[in-house]
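Late entry, evening session. Most of the bench is empty. Finally got around to the prediction I had been postponing all week. Sequence below, unchanged from the version circulated by S.P.
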Amino acid sequence: MTPWVLRLLFANFAAYLLIPRTSALFANLLLIPADVLSRPWTPVTYMFLHGDFWHILFNMIVLFFFGPRLEATLGSRKFLGLYFASGLTAALFSGLTPHALVVGASGAIYGLMIAYAGIWPTDRIYIWGVLPVQARWMMIFLAAWAIIGTLPLIASVFGFEGLHVPTDNIAHHAHLGGFVGGWLFMRWQEKNTGAAKFRKQAEPAEKKGWLYDREAVQRWARIDRESLHPVNRETYDEIMHKLSTGGTGALSDRERAFLERFAPLD
């Protein structure tokens, strides 16, 4: 578990348990796009509110499974940037329904999912713990579902009366906004970091072979040990001792991710 994933999980569950859905505080923190100028905090606070148990459970499960690897790869600051950029873009897309009451971290979560699929497209995701699907195909399906679910709203906004698509109570346009926000943030990240360096950092070790191991060990050895938090410093020492005695093959994916989190990008 990485630091900000843990804090986001705690914040979301705390808000769910401590702020009743019928309270004035809940009503003051949810997003109504038409009122955003008079309540400018709501494009952020709405992300920490959820309508029911299943709503928060789905979002937090995705955050729990996808978030740590993303935070370990991107670093905490960039991970938070991705999370909030996706959530804010979802809030922007919610403007298509200006008087709707909008709650939920789904936009931010969908941004995390599109980023994960972009970095590790062939990773297998087990739907309900049973059905294996590559990350890229799952994202294509979810994106298509969001687009199809947004069609009725587009039809009503632009007056396409002849277009009839079944509707539901899911904010598909906000999910689509989360996808767009996550995609834009990752493209901006690649542009500013350098696409080659970013992909080199994120690429799984097993796809790079012995040459990667040699380069990785050199980068891990350049980590500024003294700048680490004492807890992280202790973990770093333990992993480096394990590396010196057993080689890179002795390290788990979590230990590699820990070292990559602090390693300099060449």
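Two things to note before I forget:
The longest helix spans residues 135-158.
The beta strands are 124-127, 131-134.
Will write this up properly tomorrow.
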